[in-house]
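Review form for a predicted model. The reviewer records the input and the model, then writes brief findings.
Reviewer: anonymous (R2)
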Amino acid sequence: MAVWTIRGGRAGEYEHTLLEKGVVSVGFGLDRSITEFTDREALRAHLGQDQNRANQLWRFYQDVEIGDMVVLPRKVNREVAVGRITGAYSHQPDSVGTEAPHVRTVDWQATNIPRAHFDRDLLNSLGSLLTISQPRAPDAEARIARVANAFLGDDQFEEPSIPPIVSWESSEDHLLDGGSFEGIDIDQEIRDRIVARLKQKFAGTRLEDLVASILHASGYFVLQTRKGADGGIDVLAGKGDMGFGEPRLCVQVKGRNSTVDLVEYDRLQGNIASFRAQHGLLVSLGGFTKPVHDRNEQSFFVIRLWGPEELAQQLLDNYDSLPQDIRADIPLETVRILRESE
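Model under review:
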C-alpha cells in the first residue's frame, strides 16, 4: 500500500466537507470525468499541456488505490487527518462542489492529530503545496500509522510489515506551475521550526519558565511553585494587584515529548478545587491524546489546553515582552515579503 497527501483547497476551504462526507476530491479545472481520456497524454492535450494538473489528476485516477493511506494536512486548524481510501475514482460534481468533482471515498479514522505529534522529516514531507503528493520520508506509512494509533489510544491503523518504497523518478512529478521544485507552505514551515526549537530548548522543567513568562507578559501575577510541594501544579497565576484578582489559574506543565493522557487531565481538574482556582491550564510539549481533547470539550469553560501549536502562537503573540534569555534561544526576525495574488 502507498501513502498520499491530498489537500482540501488552497486555503483549506473544502476540509470540513471532505471530513464530513468521507471523501477526498480534486478539481484542477476539469469538469469532465477522467475516465473519458484514454491516457495521460490525452488529458494533457485537453488541459493545454499543463503537466502539473494532468499529472496530479492522472495519479488520483490511476495510481491511488483502495486501501492506500491518505493524509490531509488541515490549514484551518493546523491539524492532520489520516484515513484509508475505500472507493474507486468517480466523477461527482454534486458531492463536494463543481470546482472539485473528482472523488474517492475515505474512511477518516483520525481527523485532528496535532502536527507536533509528527517527526520533523515527516512534517517536511507533508509540506508540499501540490494538491496530490507522496511523502518521501523513510517508512512514512508505518510512522504515520504509529502516530495515529498513539493519538487515538488504540490500533486502528495496521502498520505495514514492509515499508513501501516511494519512487519519484520522473522530474515532471515535482513540477509546480512549471517550476523545478515542490512548493512549500512557508507560513506552516515557520511554525513547525518554532515548535522544533521549543522541543529542543525548552524540554523538561525549563518549559515552566517559558509558560510563566508568557503568562506574566499577558498581564498575570505569577508564582512558580516549589518542587515536591505543588501537588502536580507548576504555576499559579492571577490577575490584578498581587494576583488577588480574577481569573485565577492552576497551571500544569509537561515538558516531555510524549502525549498527556486523561490521568494527568483529571489530576488538574482536582487541583483546581484544591487551590481554590477558577480555571486550569494544561501545557504539553508532546500534545494530548484524543480522549483528552474529547473530555476537554465538556470542560471548555474550565480548562484550556496548550499543545505545541498553541504554545508557539502564544510565543509569537507575546514575543516582544518575553525575557532576553528566551528570545535568545528562539531568535525571530520580522521580514516583509510580497504576497502574491491568488
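Findings: Residues 194 and 331 are 10 Å apart (CA to CA).
Further findings: Residues 186-201 form the longest helix (16 residues).
Recommendation: see findings above.
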